[in-house]
Amino acid sequence: MSKAILKTCEKLYGTKDLYTLFGVEKKASEQEIKKAYYRLSMKTHPDRVPEEDKGVATERFKVLSKLYGVLTDKDKRAIYDERGIVDDDGEDGEDILKARWHRLFTPLTVAEIDDFKKTYIGSELERNDIKKAYLNGRGCINYMNQMVPFMSCEDEPRVAQIVQELIDAQEVPPYDAFLKEPKAKRDRRHKKYAREAKEADKVKREKREDDDEMASLQKQIALRNTARKSAFESMIDSLVTRYGDEDASQEFESPKRKRPNSKKSADTKSQPTRKNKSRAAKS
Question: Which of 34-43, 133-142, 238-247 shows the lowest mean pLDDT across its residues?
Answer without folding.
Answer: 238-247
